[in-house]
User: Which sequence fits this backbone?
């Protein structure tokens, strides 16, 4: 997985509720 995609996933995950499966 490209670093940009990983960073994006982490960014989205931090914005989502901790209960989100992502």
Assistant:
């Amino acid at each position: 997985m490209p670093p940009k995609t990983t960073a994006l996933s982490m960014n989205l995950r931090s914005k989502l509720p901790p209960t989100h499966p992502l």
User: Anything to note?
Assistant: The first helix runs from residue 3 to 15.
